[in-house]
Fold each of these.
Amino acid sequence: MREEILKAKNLQKSFGGLRAIDSLNFAICRGQIKSVIGPNGAGKTTLFNLITGIFPPSEGILEFNGQILNGLKPHLIAQLGISRTFQNLQLFGNMTVLENVMVGRHSQTSAGLLSTGLRLSRMQKEEKDIKEKALAELTFMGLENRATLEATSLPLGEQKLLEIARALATYPKLLLLDEPAAGLNTRETEKLCHTIRKIQQRGITIILVEHDMSLVMEISDELLVLNYGKKIAEGSPRDIQRDPDVIAAYLGEETGNA
Amino acid sequence: MSLTSQIIQFLFTGLNVGSIYALVALGFTMIYNATAIINLAQGEFVMLGGLMMVFFTAVLQIPMYLGFFLTVVVVTTLGALFERLAIHPLKNASIITLIIITLAGSILFRGMAMFLWGKDPYGLPSFSSDQPIHIWGATLQPQFFWVLGITGVVLLGIWFFFNRTLAGKAMTACSFNSVAARLVGINVQKMVLLSFSLSAAIGAIAGAIITPITLMEYDRGPLLALKGFAAAVLGGLGSGGGAIVAGFLIGILESLGAGLVSSGYKDAIALLVLLIVLWIKPSGLFGSAEESELKKF
Amino acid sequence: MRDRMRRKDLYSLLLIGLLIVLYPWIVDGNEYFISVLVFLGINSIVTMGLCLLMGYAGQISLGHAAFFGIGAYFSGILTSQYSFHPVVAFFAGIFFSALVAFLVGKPTLRLKGHYMAVATLGFGEIFFIAFNELITLTGGPSGLSGIPSLSFFGQVLEVTAYLYLVWGFVFLLLIFSLNVINSRVGRALRAVHGGELAANAMGVDAAWYKVQVFVLSAVYASIAGSLYAHFITFISPSSFGLMPSIMFLMMVVIGGAGTIWGALLGTAVLTSLPEYLRGLEEFEVLAYGGILMAVLLFMPQGILEGMQKLLKSMRRTRKKNP
């Protein structure tokens, strides 16, 4: 498990005068669950946006499986095997639950305009396969009974699970979860904890941004702590809990659920 | 006529049409700043201004200055009604719906005009005399100076409104942050209504002053709107000053192009400017790239 | 669920097909009524493409009549002035439309909302000006006449045969469109509409799909233009300017941009409307504006969904008061 799947070297991102990410160095090992924590504004979502290519780094290098991510467009990064959920849900409101997940199969399928328009048999086979695989992910997340409902008609907790199912349908090597527990109650969060473990068991590496400290401490193999865009600590949950810099950064902030 | 006098002639013509484009661009900018909507019916306010003026002065035989006043009042009212009946109810609709509703408004106004006045172009007598004036080898109608003069007055008035009156400052606040504006007690709804009314007024004035020179027919609106919008983006959407400068620029460019190159394609000049700006630098000459990223569409 | 939808599609297809085949008998061979249906078919081809662009992919085009014109002028000019075979001219028009759509589409579809709308307006106007100014090619404002009618094995296609030809195209393109909609590509387009950010994050190249559907819609319009030119044998720029572009847009919007059937309904309504306004031409533009405004304010999902909702609520009240 020491093989590094994602590396950041001297990563920087500035917006005008504001340095959102500053001289960041870290590595994620294949198969681990790494949580990124820090006070609000520490740069966690910016980091996710950098990894998924929403904007390029101002300086430094992001490397995934030996491939440099800098400057790659988001859809290409998704095709490389990095998938994500969004902090404020980005479901496709104009589609059903199943259709949302089916979109996740896009980068690993190939039928184009002509073969779909002419309904070639190759495309029909692929369609069947897409549907099956999407249904499998819905079942994995416990949503198989919701398949034909409009995505936005689901309660919030289930919508968050749907987004994970959609991300899983891309068969990612690396999954970024952006505050998946936000808005969930204790029972739902526990279920989420189990689900994330099951995802790890599938061989998927996970980066988690979360404010719910009990979830973070319970599930993470390693933590990365950011403050003002800089790394202030990296290590096992127990070490981080005792780290004086981390404690100082959180003074004045609530520990536990944000 | 020597080349220099020709060019001077084109420059003056350019300043004249440029005034109209500047006023239309200003109208766009005002509504955009208050609402983040592009009002595709802007050109129709100009058209209605011209045709209403013809109606009051030529048909009802009302004296010029009274007719001018009435024209502005009527078109402003139409603009306000448009906002109340069509824009306000849809304020939470999708962008595409908002675009199409202003499009529907423009068709409606065009239809009204076609119904009331038919498809023929109408003219107006010049506001003062018809004696051409000769300057630097160019021949100008006195109406040229009315156009420039009244445009100048309008621009001054708008500047005064935005910088010296509370209402104007309130409207500027809305454009920057409507939530904050509401929190400090500014009635955003009223500001939206005001922006439409003002834009209609400006459009009406533009139509009234240019009709003696270029005539006016029921379907002049869309092309005027496109060119005015070209000026608005060229100047940097949201920047009133930029819109005005760009309006004159496009007017001159168009006039020079029409005179020196080809008159058939003259309308395409402004349109090409529009496309080039949108495709290459949507923030225009005076806007910043970051600002245009932040602007909601 | 998908299979249930396709059965509804199939029934609708069969129903319409039956109507078209029987129509000449229904109207007793009346050439005027048959040509209305021909125009309806031609317009439907344009609006189907536009619906894919607007309803499914969520983009906007206010200048689509330009592509309609390109198809029409390519067919018209190449067959009348240069004696090309109609099929060659047909494909030439398609190719050129696709090329223009690609070149214009790439930078335009990057723009957001209002900017995109105005850019398409602008480019539509530019083509209108070109149609008017390239007099030696297009005949300018006075138009291009003498376009040959189409013939099949030496027999000139008269109105009824042309009806079947046009609607044959409509059907083929309708089936093609439905296939695309109910597929990976259709979902990709709808994902772009539903949320470009998430679409990209799931591996959908949103920018490329927008261009693809724009090009496709331009090809549809060009096909329609070619059919139009050979039908009326005289074309002029006024059929390819702003008002026609807006009309196509209106057909899609008022029928219900969300589905292709909505677009067809809207096309049927607006193509037959001028027939009811015979003798009341002064009202024409006013009527269009009023209808568009009314639909947007009271039935924003379009007439098709509006009617469906109405039927549903009527059924509910009937259940309450037996």
Note: Strands of chain A lie at 4-15, 18-29, 33-37, 59-64, 67-68, 82-84, 174-178, 205-209, 222-227, 230-235.
Amino acid sequence: MSWGKIFGLYAGAFVLFTVLLSLSEYWGLVSNRGIAYTYLVVTIGVYALIGVLSRTARPDQYYVAGRGVPAFFNGMATGADWMSAASFISMAGALYATGYDGLAYVSGWTGGYVLLAIYLAPYLRKFGAYTIPDFLALRYGGNAARVVGLLMAIGASFTYLIAQITGVGIIMGRFLGMDFNVGAFVGLAGILVCSMLGGMRAVTWTQVAQYIILILAYITPVAMLSYKHFGIPLPEFTYGQVLQDITQLEVQQGVTKLWVDMAPGGMLNWFALCFCMMVGTAGLPHILMRYYTTPSVKEARSSVGWSLFFIFLLYFTAPSYGAFARWTVLKDVIGKKITELPNWVYRWGDTILGKETNHLGLFDIADKNGDGILQLTDFVIKSTDFVVLATPEIAGLPFVITGLVMAGGLAAALSTADGLLLTISNALSHDLYYKIINPQASIVKRLTTARILLVVAAVAGAYVATFRINIIVAVVAYAFALAGSGFFPALVMGIFWKRANKQGAIAGMAVGFLTALILIVVGRNWGIYILGVKEIGAGVFGVPIGFLVIWAVSLMYPPPDQQTQDLVEEVRYPRGTTMKLAGIE
Amino acid sequence: MASFRDIDKSKREAYWQETSRFTWLILVLWFVSWVGPLVLHYQLNRIVIFGFPLSYWFAGQGSLAIFIVLIVWYAMKMNALDRKYGVAEEA
């Protein structure tokens, strides 16, 4: 049976399962909590099954899925790898809160794939290494570049991993009432069963399965909401009408900065943020390494297209989520009598009109001036995550769809965590252990080490997540500035400029990374900004400085040896093989 | 062992020159596709089509669609260049 048929059947079975579950709900056979647990057990069970079926004892399967993942499925896997708990649960909420200004994330987290397509993916595939530090080591002659790459890969991926595990813990808490720490460790188990036995091969196919669930879960509620109001289940096209209504309602309620407009003087920051997210996307190792897994350069090229297509389906829908939610709040909550509040505010709000209903940490409603009418300031948002969580009920859908959203958020967090965990443990087992510490290690020993390190990294991630350090969410956003400034220039120059050498690359990576880091630290702690650019957009300085330093320092030292120059030349042409030239078995 | 030296030198150079030029073209189009609607934010947002203020629409949806078109175009054109200069992968 072909992969297409298998996953087609799988998607069909999942839809059927959801329909059956909603019938059970309709007939009163299952409670809300029961629905949430059913989704949890069934989806994680499926991922675990794929993980076990994909077990392998071969290094090429473990590290790069045997370079046998077709472009289409690699695109789907990349989509799941890329879209995290933040994309799924939080992005639409951020758009609800910020309007046009938040769209810098939407453009930024998609536009980076163009850079990936034209500068990196096909060339990295031709190069044919196992990890990103591998590429840096072979191109820039030795372990110094490998170690710098290794440290940056682990640093960026580990903070990101903690955020995903935190996401899992929060989701479990909100839907299942589970204690955060228990939730985090259940999530940990869910991550490990997918990746431990089969490495990249298992993670790839699990991510395909997770993508299907997350995209169905994301689009269904808002599509139904669009259908309810406009008779067309395509919110991406119908929300133009909603935008008009929002503007009208805002004008009525005396809002000065319209939602669809930019914050005054915000252009430079919008640019910096968007640029940073784009270059960071093209510099994150867990995304880059996915393009090692396609069978050919040609497939790597089209795979970037599929990746962006599958990511686009969600991102292209996110603005409509934000708009429908804002419209609902402005129309059904604000300006209404306190006796006429819709039901969803009681389900998801914490303290509604003085009555404690939940502890979900989403929003409160209080009639502050006691006139019996809700004003804009009476609706106090604590977390804009309520946008995605409450949309199924706003659309009048059964609780099953809320359970589906939980399964989708979980799939988004777990799939990203899998990719990150693999990046970390591969950097440790392949780059540090095999390439630096013990190059004589047997295949069995290498893979055993890889698996042990995978478990260690996962447990460490979950353990750190239980401290609930507030800074983590901010640090993830900074990871883009850091990865973009540290990795992107060295990778691009390594492929496009033969003259770039070891000294230049190491200096460029270090200075680029440190520039971004220093700007982040001084911006965050003391509010010192260059040209008013907030620290989250620090890459707008770090990236060009990284390029400049590589260029200038390279010219100060002799060009790389003939073998390295041949390697760079070889990478340009899809024909032939690079792996032997580079000494990779 | 297959090596790039098996490919005729003039063909290699022509291939790389055309590739570089095309890469620059995509880069410029990419840049314009998202910076354009940003710089013209105030002008474009006054133009409303099917309810969508145009600058808002580009940042949330339009630019994204252009990104996909650019990547697909790049892949198609590069595959054609591979064949034209005889540097395509052996089937």
Note: Residues 45 and 53 of chain B are 5 Å apart (CA to CA).
